[in-house]
Amino acid sequence: MTLKQKRDAAPAIGFSPLYQQVKSVLLQRLVDGVWVPGSLLPSEIQLAAEIGVSQGTVRKALDELAAENLLVRRQGRGTFVAEHDERRILFQFFKLVPDHGERRFPESAVLNVTVAPADAEESAALAIEPAAGVIRIRRLRALDGRPLILETLSLPQKVFAGLDRAEIPNNLYSLFASRYGITIARARERLKAVALSADDAAALSVATGTPALRIDRIALALDGMPVERRLSLCLTEEAHYLSDLR
Amino acid sequence: MTLKQKRDAAPAIGFSPLYQQVKSVLLQRLVDGVWVPGSLLPSEIQLAAEIGVSQGTVRKALDELAAENLLVRRQGRGTFVAEHDERRILFQFFKLVPDHGERRFPESAVLNVTVAPADAEESAALAIEPAAGVIRIRRLRALDGRPLILETLSLPQKVFAGLDRAEIPNNLYSLFASRYGITIARARERLKAVALSADDAAALSVATGTPALRIDRIALALDGMPVERRLSLCLTEEAHYLSDLR
DNA sequence: GAGTGGTCTAGACCACGAA
DNA sequence: TCGTGGTCTAGACCACTCA
Q1: CA-CA-CA-CA torsion sign (B136, B138, B139, B140)
Q2: Nucleotide D8 C1' to residue A44 CA (A)
Q3: Whole-prediction pTM value?
Q4: What is the pLDDT of residue B12?
Q5: Alpha helices in chain B (DSSP H)
Q6: What is the pLDDT of chain B when averaged over all its residues?
Q7: Residue B103 has pLDDT above 70, yes or no
Q8: What is the mean pLDDT of residues A24-46?
Q9: Which of A70, A176, B164, B204 pairs as cysteine with A182 (C-beta 3.0–4.6 A)?
Q10: A161: helix, coil or strand?
Q11: Closest alpha carbon within chain A to B91
């Protein structure tokens, strides 16, 4: 039975436009890993024939997924599953930019990796049971050799089982995708200005009480589940957080 | 001569899709005040006939303008020019939200209004000549009676001639639109964590050196010209800046 | 019921990239 | 030269609003 027939058969209950249903079907394939990052999707015409709708309807679904940065469309080549390459992360997920000079990635040094029961904040942020296991990664990130960000990541152990310290790369999201089949689709950040504690200040090589930007990020997978909590303390003497309102 | 004929006549030089040209035409009418905020646009069919393209092409242009929050489309009613009502500002341009409780507007108290030659920062931010006149508005904004934001606005005097202290409302952007015909289309914010100076701390009723979130906003009009610079110092003990990454 | 925007279709042609 | 996505058109029908 085609999608259109399904809709027409029961128009009263939970009606939604065809292209939205097509979008859900395609999204589910991304979630299920039928199409992995970097791979080429079938052409619009093939998808339309397979799903049983017109090319225009498939196009509208694909366009929306592309607008959400989940797909990349290239004229003459085809439609691809978006990858978490450096450039994408840099512009979509990394908002701290130097006051002067180019936007670029900081180097990372892992300080320690521990596994522990989730505290109250973590279980709330990650929507996991109280005291469920979390992997905590603490790392220091620097630009031009100057410590800039002290970062504490909390990952649900259930999702990222077997994550080893040795394999933690600078770009974590591409590891999530390649090793665990998890695509980070979007994130929510809450920012505050705080005074650094003695320990945090020492790690960043500044004086206790130095003002820092505290970023509390929760990153969501394709299916909307929170899969990462990231607490960052950023020095903003020579950098700033860039937010475009439109 | 219709748009399509124009394009076909000279396809080599500066080709752009028809719907983009239509979009430019419509945008120009917004800039020129042909259609003011809140007013009803002609129907898609009327616009298509007038401009000389198909309804689908007009639709694509209208959809993009709606996606940029410049128009509001309502099924069964028509397409309207977006207004800077409280709700829109609250969600599009006001990112500081209480940690607990509902997102809401702070009350404002104007501390002083002065006119002075622009300093280097202002002339750069507003793209005006060095020492051109700017209106500076300093105000204190509070939630539930607690001072939260100390704000300094810089407006080019040329654009906002005759702005009087008595007429400064809490919602400035609707005044910009109604009195000066200027629509704020988008803004760029740069955030830093700073320690409050003695003066600023006193204005906010906190101790000198208290960490605060410093937001440097440049707001752009429909035509892309910067028309407002806003420097905010925000206390983030019980509130945070919310940023959605997607 | 008339008019609006929203969806869906079918088909034509264009611009682009790669073989 | 071929296949891809991008644009444009024309027309049908649907859902919503309001008189």
Answers
A1: positive
A2: 18
A3: 0.93
A4: 39
A5: 3-9, 18-32, 44-51, 55-67, 86-92, 120-126, 172-180, 198-203
A6: 93
A7: yes
A8: 96
A9: A176
A10: coil
A11: A245
Least confident of A53-57, A58-62, B144-148: B144-148
Query: Which CATH number describes the domain made up of A3-81?
Result: 1.10.10.10
What's the CA gap between A189 and A94, in Å, rounded? 11
Show residues of chain A in contact with B233, CB under 8 Å.
none
Confidence of residue B11 (pLDDT cuts 50, 70, 90): very low
Q: Which amino acid makes up residue B244?
A: D
**A197 interaction partners in chain B (CB closer than 8 Å):** none
Contacts of A213 in chain B (CB under 8 A): 191-193, 213
Nucleotide nearest to A76 (CA to C1'): D4
Domains of chain A: which residue ranges?
Answer: 3-81, 86-241
- Closest residue in B to A241 (Cα) is B191
pLDDT in tens, A129-139: 998 999 999 99
Strand D nucleotides within 7 Å of a protein CB: 3-11, 15-18
pLDDT of residue B14: 52
Q: In this structure, which topology does domain B86-241 adopt according to CATH?
A: Chorismate lyase (3.40.1410)
CA distance B82 to B113: 29
Query: Which amino acid, residue A237?
Result: E
Residues B193, A69: C-beta atoms closer than 8 Å: no
Residue whose pair of structure tokens reads 């120009």 in the numeric block = B28
